Amino acid sequence: MVVEVGEQAGYFSIPDQNGNTIRLSAFPGKRVVLSFHPLAWTRICAEQMKALEANRETFDALDAVALGISVDSVPCKRAWAGSLGIKKTRLLADFWPHGAVAQMYGVFDSQKGYSRRANVVVDEVGRIIFVAEYTATTVPDMQDVLDALRVPEKSRRAEERAPEI
């Protein structure tokens, strides 16, 4: 089951394409976009990761950092990032234990052995504020993620307390 808005995000520590250990807790005061994709070297996943890189300055302006995550290995991610021209966006290798982060966030497809396509936004205090899952053949629209990042913290809190009618 995929994580839900309002839940505390699961913390992780996995390598990026350069072999640097990346921890969710390494971004204090920032919101973090976790962009799960099935596999490197596929057209739609490439478009998804290029969209993260293309929006890098916008993420920076919104005090956010975007991380691409799949079950591929570090050498695979490094070669793929180079082929795509990705220089600043971190592409994380959820390789071993196989898909552990995707499993933690409820987006791992155990039948296929890789994560489903999804975006999860974690706020400054480690709470999930946005979740969207996409079909395998759909490039996620980053506008939804950017809109979620633009909602101020005070407004998010007010929305969470608003009574249902």
UniProtKB/TrEMBL annotation:
Ranges where the Thioredoxin domain occurs: 3-151
Family matches, as Pfam families: AhpC-TSA
Source superkingdom: Archaea
Keywords: Oxidoreductase, Redox-active center
Listed name of the protein: Peroxiredoxin
Source organism per UniProt: Methanoculleus chikugoensis
